[in-house]
Amino acid sequence: MATDRQDPGYRKARRTYLVSYDRAIPTLRQADHCIGCGQCMVHCPQTIKIPDELHRIDRYAEKLKQDPAVL
Ligand code: SF4
């Protein structure tokens, strides 16, 4: 994961993450399409707050997409 802009591998890690994310997950199933309805939570045996995690992933992906340091 691309975490530190000062890391010399940041640009490559950022690009790899974003390209892999787009390739692995169809657009309509990506985290930004979660509406937070909570219907998935009753099915998770680990009681993971899935909408919260999806929103966290979306914030991370959007941050990487809009990172002015790598434009
Ligand atoms: S809360 Fe769960 S079921 Fe509802 S949209 Fe998000 S991922 Fe899908």
Describe it:
The chain is mainly α and about 70 residues long. The chain has one domain (about 10-65). The chain is about 45% helix and about 0% strand. The chain has two helices and no strands. The two termini are about 20 Å apart. The mean pLDDT is about 90. The structure holds iron/sulfur cluster (SF4). Iron/sulfur cluster (SF4) binds next to α2.
Outline:
The chain has 71 residues and is an all-alpha fold. The protein has helices spanning 10-24, 50-65. The protein has one domain (10-66).
Write the layout of secondary structure elements.
Blueprint: H1 10-24, H2 50-65
From N to C, what is the helix and strand string?
Answer: HH
Which shape, going by the Cα principal axes? elongated
Number of domains: 1
Rg over alpha carbons: 14 Å
Distance between the termini: 18 Å
- Sequence stretches where pLDDT stays below 50 over 5 or more residues: none
Hetero ligands: iron/sulfur cluster
DSSP helix fraction: 40-55%
| Average pLDDT for all residues | 92
Keywords:
single chain; 71 residues; mainly alpha
